[in-house]
Amino acid sequence: MAQEIVGADLLKKLNSDLKGASPTSYYKHVQASLLSWDGDSVNSRKYHEEGLSLGNVFAKFGYEIDEFRIPLKGSQLLLESHILSKVAAASARRSEGTGKSLLILHYGGHGFETKDCRAVWAAEPIGDGEQPLVEWHIIQNHLEKSEADILLILDCCFGASAGRAGSRLGRIELISATAKFEKTPPPGLYSFTNAVINVLKQSLDNISQTDREDITAETLHRRLLRKEANLPATASHVVLRAGIPNRSIRLYPLHLQQNIAQQLDTKGPLIKLLIKTSSLDHNKIDELAIWLRSDIPSDVSLEVESITGIMGSLQSLITSFPDTDKPVGRALSEDSLSRIVTAWNNICELVVLYGHGRQQFPRTQSLLRVLESQARRFLSRLEEEETDLLESVEQGILHSPYAESQKGVDHLLETPEIGALPIANQLRLLQLTLRPEEDNVDEPEHSTKSLHDERHIWKEEKGYKQSLDQEELMQIEQRVRRIANLMEATKSEKFHALECIRWSHDDKEHRFILEFQVPPTHNPTRYWSLKGILAEGTKKRPTLGQRFRLAYTIAEAVLHWHSVQWVHQSITSHNIIFFEDLQSKIDFGNCFLQRFDYARPKQEPSIGRHVDDIQYNVYRHPDRQGPCRQGHTKIHDIYSLGVVLLEIGLWEDVRITGMKKDNDIMVDKMVRNLQYAAEKRLPHYMGEDYQEAVLACLKSECEPEIDDKAQSRLAESFQRLVMDRLRKNRDLR
């Protein structure tokens, strides 16, 4: 059989088909549609209210909720239209490669079975005269067209009569309040829906327990059969379509699924699987995806591109360095080459040592445990060394002479080995940075982003003085446009910035508005600034480990924005943003550096007039205060970062630390107060490494006496004096 190289488009398709393959990240999107009859009757109102209570529980799982009141006129047609639209949307997500979808349909109401054993829904109990009916068995047949998984939860009499086997790929399961020929209790304490709510709530309460039982359709049914469920009728569970893989539908909070998936990507052992095939096309990719998805163990994640792929590209890149005919070989300085070669040698030595430590011995059970422990430590070290190597390569290339011009960046991007590495996206950002502002003038005001979730939008406003003349206003608009372009572009997560989807100019209110996409695991209406959290004192103070990680994250963001020659110009705790997760808790693990103050490429002058605002002056470098201030530079950003890191370390508003309630304090005295707090108080809370990193920022120790145009020596000093020190406690638990 001939071995074929997977093309980029086929590789992308296969990974898209494998999204959500692991049960730990099983569904990327879940929609719960709550169905009940419209009308003012007591029965209709009670079923509707109980359905909403179930919807509130599903919302805590991070599921999208909608309700549909079945009209009393045109019931069949309108309900069919509603359900088919939901089925089509769920199926489209899978076919578009945005992840596996689950559709949950809950019905609360009356039902009966016809003489030919067909399920029918009714607005009122049978015998109450003529009334609207829905032939559910007809709608259920349409569900066979779905490629997504579907869970039916039917709280009605004769619910199990809906059980008819199907044949397609997606899985469909039915949990009904009763078996055939049985009736279900009305809404209330002993209702079927109330029992489902109690089981799901208990699952949420036990979510952190290691010995918990995951909730699937099967386990949900099993718990409904227990005595403590208090159900007078016997709940029924039917698998209408087995699907591929043949595994019960799983109900799990979406935000926790993402966290577990990330852990699987980095913590566990990796297995390299070589697949040989006589041919490779889209049909073969479909077959491989179905095969690989089927019956995956619960702690396995699949992705066709592993650490070996990155390491292979790095190896090819490093071995090409001696070739001075290539851009990279000509670009790197001797210092950069030395750091990269040292990092590469560290990896090679690590692999050799690991190989020597795993010589063949009798494989006893105790030895296997030792070998497994060694493997985990090796993979952890390998990941650390790979990160160091990638950072050395990135810093060497991004601060090379080739990165100082658009033409040089274009040449670097033409290097095949670079195109396969994360640095490629940073070089594309650098292209945007190096582009003259005049090139942006004719661009449309609004972004062209079309695929976004309008429910997860966060808006950022940038006001300006009405007195600005037309030239000044045009300059600011050009800067806003460039910020939007940069924030919209594909970038590494290490920039820690939200994705901009559009922007607009509201000239009546004298402001610009940028709109950002918020991750679906967060609530866009519930956000905090670091300044706001600090104002809460100890009530919302994160753990020591969280504060170390937060400090490193913010510094990492500054490092990466500076690597593409962009300065923030307003790094303060007001502009570090957090969102609450779906459990209404502040997610300290994900902060975002936002509100770029008409930020700009480092080589362009600052714009705007001097504003003397004491609450922001405390973050500004001394050279940036007063009417005769200097233009903003990277070293000024780094000073502001030091002030924010001091706030995090002391967990205290910097106005207390730096000004000591003296609003008329002189700049020199304020700087001395900050440095004194870092020298005398900070080690007690955060240790000496953290203290030294903060002082390096506040005392501008990173600034070299002489530097090149790309400021490579500044970048090297910042890495050594700040990042390396903060990294030492980054993973503290």
Topology:
Elements: H1 8-18, E1 29-37, H2 42-60, E2 64-70, H3 75-95, E3 101-108, E4 110-113, E5 119-122, E6 133-134, H4 136-142, E7 149-155, E8 172-176, H5 192-205, E9 215-216, H6 217-224, E10 236-241, E11 250-251, H7 254-267, H8 282-293, H9 307-319, H10 327-331, H11 334-356, H12 365-398, H13 406-413, H14 416-419, H15 423-434, E12 457-463, H16 470-488, E13 499-506, E14 511-517, E15 522-529, H17 530-535, H18 544-563, E16 566-567, E17 576-581, E18 592-593, E19 600-601, H19 614-617, H20 634-650, H21 654-659, H22 667-680, H23 682-686, H24 688-698, H25 712-727
Parallel strand pairs: 1-2, 1-3, 3-7, 7-8
Antiparallel strand pairs: 4-5, 5-6, 8-10, 9-11, 12-14, 13-14, 15-17, 16-19, 17-18
Helix pairs in contact: 1-8, 2-5, 11-12, 13-15, 18-20, 18-25, 20-24, 22-24, 24-25
- In order across it, which strands form the biggest sheet? 2-1-3-7-8-10
> Which residues sit in consecutive blocks of at least 5 with pLDDT less than 50?
1-7, 260-267
| CATH class term of the largest domain | Alpha Beta
Radius of gyration: 30 Å
Strand portion, in percent? 5-15%
Number of domains: 5
Count of beta strands: 19
| Assigned CATH architecture of the largest domain | 3-Layer(aba) Sandwich
